[in-house]
Amino acid sequence: MKNHSQITKAVIAVAGYGTRFLPATKNQPKEMLPIIDKPIIHYLVEEAVNSGIRDIILVTRFGQHIMEDYFDSNLELEYMLEESGKIDLLNEIRDISNLANFIYVRQKKDYPYGNGTPLLCVKDLIDSNESFVYMFGDDLTISEKPVITQLIEQHQNQNAKATLAVQEVPSEEISRYGSIEYKNIEDYPYEMKKGHEKLPAEKAPSNMAQFGRFVFTYDVIEAATKASTGKDGELWMIDILNSLVESGNKVIAPPIEGEWLTTGDPLRYLKATFRFALQREDINGKLTDYLSDYI
């Protein structure tokens, strides 16, 4: 029987150290770096909210209070904007704290490092019969229909235990990401046989790269609590998903409609910033005119 109950919770993993961006991330999370005039994390929350999510659970670490402050009210700033007559900005600032219900959970030091570890931190915040969204904090998307909405629809239609977003990348890029090996079932060609973490192009089973958008049932959390650490002693999401498949559970990896942009390193962060700038009518023309002088 398919479970079509509404999915209202999203877990966003933001407990990393952002070492590729040091020293900029010495005193702030990478997810607070701006894409034009909003931090990366704001875009993730908006995507979730636009997909019907009401509760945002941020898995953080020590020193990330700036993120909590961002999604809280700032009465002094609001007063200044109101006194200055900048009502549009005032309303925009007030809307931030009203985007969703925000819950903050610290990632415990005795847990292993890894992109699957935040699941251990939220096991008491998700009901055993509940599906939820899981997001990596450094992946952005541009699409007409929110990527999370796409995944929720596929997840529910296929009655999957786990649904992960993928997008085809060039062969020279696949070694940077997890690649998906499919079962090639005729009636639904995107059921996962196995995921492979960062294989060289000549060994990768496909160019379908996994990125940080998922829909999970509670079974994935249970699998995470039983999983062993893998490469480099980390708890890998791909290993958790493989264990589900090996136990006979349905895991699907449908390609998304739209564009995935990673901000995982300075070059790709700049590319993402430029791509979002091209979406802005108030910026795109002037920006391309400026860059044309240097290209």
Counting DSSP E segments of at least 2 residues, the number of strands comes to 13
Distance between the termini: 57 Å
Shape: globular
The unreliable regions are none
Could you give the order of the helices and strands? Answer: EEEHEHHHEHEEHEEEEHHEEHH
Structural class determined from secondary elements? alpha/beta
Describe this structure in words.
There is one protein chain. The protein contains 10 helices and 13 strands. Strand 2 (34-35) and strand 3 (38-39) form a beta hairpin. The longest helix is centred in the last third of the chain and has 13 residues, at 266-278. With 295 residues, it is of the alpha/beta class.
Topology:
Blueprint: E1 9-13, E2 34-35, E3 38-39, H1 40-49, E4 55-60, H2 65-70, H3 75-83, H4 87-97, E5 101-106, H5 118-121, E6 132-136, E7 139-142, H6 147-158, E8 162-168, E9 178-182, E10 192-197, E11 208-216, H7 218-226, H8 237-246, E12 251-252, E13 259-262, H9 266-278, H10 284-292
Parallel strand pairs: 1-4, 1-6, 4-5, 8-12
Antiparallel strand pairs: 2-3, 6-11, 7-13, 8-11, 9-10, 9-11
Provide a quick synopsis of the model:
By secondary structure, the protein is α/β, with parallel strands linked by helices. Helix content is 32%, strand content 21%. The strands form 3 sheets. Strands 1, 4, 5, 6, 8, 9, 10, 11 and 12 form a 9-stranded mixed beta sheet that branches. Strands 2-3 form a two-stranded antiparallel ribbon.
